[in-house]
Amino acid sequence: MNKALINIDYTFDFAAVDGRLSCGEKGQLIEREVSAITERFIQNGDFTVFAIDVHELNNHYHPERALFPPHNIRNSAGRNLFGSLREVYERNKQSPHIYYLDKTRYSAFAGTDLELKLRERGITELHLVGLCTDICVLHTAVDAYNKGFSIAVYEDAVASFSQQGHDWAMEHFKAALGATIIKGKGVC
Q1: What is the rounded average pLDDT of the residues 162-185?
Q2: Has residue 138 got a pLDDT over 70?
Q3: Separate counts of helices (H) and strands (E) for the chain
Q4: What are the chain's domains?
Q5: Percent of the chain residues topping a pLDDT of 70
Q6: Which long-range contacts does 69-78 make (Cβ < 8 Å, 24+ apart)?
């Protein structure tokens, strides 16, 4: 089965202590696992997508404007990949298997060419890591399910603002989407 990794929103604004919409310590604790999984997928030659939120500073029409403070603003430091993941990306960004995707909604599929990129490579299985478990990871997983992809979520490589939201999403991945939950250092 052809597989791909979708690395979702692991940026400074979501993970750093002083990020604009930070998960704080929960987001930082998954750094090593997110980076290691991403590195393994890249080294295996698997399609690796960096699906990264991008917002315009004064977009008064975006639905998130009423819900969250400005974050991941285009051309801001807050949009940079966080910690060691940034190093993984910089070392490998010329690889033909890496795709950096700007997304403007929770789901990496909404308004993007992600499905086209996956289908043209014959990918049928998506592995998900990143932030936030119950928002962007969840909405990407739901869209993936609705499009017929198999889903795997790395339990130690996703986090959210609240433990309750994280736990609910993890159960939803299994119970409603039939996702495989990979614990610990999962084999890719």
Answers
A1: 95
A2: yes
A3: 7, 6
A4: 3-182 (3.40.50.850)
A5: 97
A6: 69/20, 69/21, 70/20, 71/13, 71/14, 71/19, 71/20, 71/21, 72/9, 72/11, 72/13, 72/14, 72/20, 72/21, 76/13, 77/12, 78/11, 78/12, 78/13, 78/19, 78/20
Q: Which residue has the tokens 């704080």?
A: 24
Average pLDDT, the chain: 95
HEC profile of 57-120: CCCCCCHHHHCCCCCCECCCHHHCECHHHHHHHHHHCCCCCEEEEEECCCCCCCCCCHHHHHHH
Average pLDDT over residues 143-170: 98
pLDDT at 187 over 60: no
The percent of residues above 90 in pLDDT, for the chain, comes to 87
Asked if residue 101 lies in contact with residue 33, where contact means CB atoms within 8 angstroms, the answer is no
CA distances, 58 to each of 43, 55, 116, 164 (Å)? 39, 9, 30, 32
Token pair for residue 101? 């995707």
